[in-house]
Amino acid sequence: MDGFEPIEVPEGEIPTDEINFAEENEAMKAASPMKDQVATSSSGSKIVMPAAKTRNYGYCHIYEYHMKFSKGKIKYETQVNNEWKSQFKYAYYPAKSMDIAMEVINGTDELLKDPTVKDRYTKEFISFKEGQRVRVAIQKGSSWSGSYSKYDWIIVSMFPVF
User: Fold this and answer.
1) What is the 3-state secondary structure (H, E, C) of 73-121?
2) Buried b (16+ CB within 10 A) or exposed e, 73-95
3) pLDDT in tens, 95-128
4) Which of 11, 53, 107, 109 is 20 to 30 A off residue 3, Cα-Cα?
């Protein structure tokens, strides 16, 4: 990828932008209705984060399992439906969630195949917006039916990893 230089960050020293996340999140609420978030990656792929009200994929899944119980701290997990789920630092609105996903997607060329789901892959990278490593699970749009099939990739999940 042109202009991309990997950075070395010592374990436990993940820098964050000097941002007041509470204020920024309120601003994002006004600018972020519950609709599909669409972006183009640095490599030119069209990517969508569905906002459909389902717990199976997309923004609603991410919110329900990885944001709903956030406590404003990193490396935090809690039980959701008797399973341990890592939580984002804050519960973000769709546009901010897409910003974090794109930061991860554009941050690395490494694409790891999910051995359990056909056409599903993951990308993992440090999110400076979130202040910790984040994994994004994406699936080829061509494996979906309906309107999502027109996208190169669909974001099905995203969560902090530690």
Assistant:
1) CCCEEEEECCEEEEECCCCCCHHHHHHHHHHHHHHCCCCEECCCCCCEE
2) ebebeeeeeeeebbbbbbbbbbb
3) 999 999 999 999 999 999 999 999 999 999 999 9
4) 11
What are the residues facing 123 on neighbouring strands? Answer: 136
CB 97 within 8 A of CB 158: yes
Model pTM? Answer: 0.78
Tokens of 124: 């993992």
% of the chain surpassing 90 pLDDT: 70
Q: DSSP of 27-65, one letter per residue?
A: HHHHH--SS-EEEE-TTS-EEEE---S-SSSHHHHHHHH
Residue 25 neighbours by CB under 8 Å, 6+ apart: 90, 91, 92, 93, 96
User: Residue 154's pLDDT band (boundaries 50, 70, 90)?
Assistant: very high
- Lookup result for tokens 């599903």: 120
3-state DSSP assignment of residue 158: strand
∠ at Cα 41 (133, 56), nearest 5°? Answer: 60
